[in-house]
Design brief:
alpha/beta
Length: 192
């Protein structure tokens, strides 16, 4: 997904469900001169997602779309993405699985960040699983979204050493810190 020098930044949507710390980080990154993206839309499946406050603060359009009826929700989102000319999607703690139909429409243009060294520990409760299995390392991975959960081609990943004293909470904080560096790096890599 190369960009030609001098062209505008790629219009991007970020999908969230919770605190939005990765969203906040992506907004900051998108405002940098050398960033290839501009965030034009934030989509949340939860009306009380904390991340929506960042969108408000930065005057970025936000949409809350209930996933009680997933097909209907995705149809609404696709209409919105087309209207806003969105060409790239970043998932940042979005806790819904998108349908294969949706993913195919944006093939190679949806990325996600996951708090483990993929292909290990896909899905939820990664820190808990990693600690339970006495792993020496964990980390985070940015990957393309495909129809299989957390199975798309890995763009970048970062290893984090696990200490004997680490708990789920400390590990989460350590890995989150790395996510903030990794996500922008991966996006730059995609557009270079």
């Amino acid at each position: 997904m190369k960009k030609l020098i001098g062209l505008d930044k790629t219009k991007t949507a970020v999908f969230i469900s919770g605190t939005g710390s990765n969203l906040k980080n992506l907004i900051k990154f998108s405002s940098e001169k050398n960033s290839p993206i501009t965030i034009k839309l934030v989509v949340s499946n939860k009306k009380n997602a904390n991340g929506l406050k960042y969108a408000d603060r930065k005057k970025i359009e936000k949409k809350i779309i209930s996933f009680i009826k997933p097909k209907k929700a995705e149809k609404k989102i696709l209409t919105l993405l087309t209207k806003r000319e969105i060409k790239f999607i970043c998932l940042a703690g979005f806790m819904k699985i998108l349908s294969s139909k949706f993913i195919k429409k944006f093939k190679g243009k949806i990325v996600n960040i996951h708090p483990s060294l993929l292909p290990k520990y896909k899905g939820l409760y990664t820190h808990k699983k990693v600690l339970k299995n006495n792993e020496k390392f964990s980390g985070c991975s940015v990957h393309y979204v495909t129809t299989k959960l957390d199975s798309g081609k890995i763009i970048l990943k970062k290893k984090v050493k696990i200490m004997k004293t680490d708990t789920e909470k400390t590990l989460k904080i350590k890995i989150l810190r790395e996510e903030y560096n990794l996500y922008p790096k991966a996006i730059k890599k995609i557009f270079n």
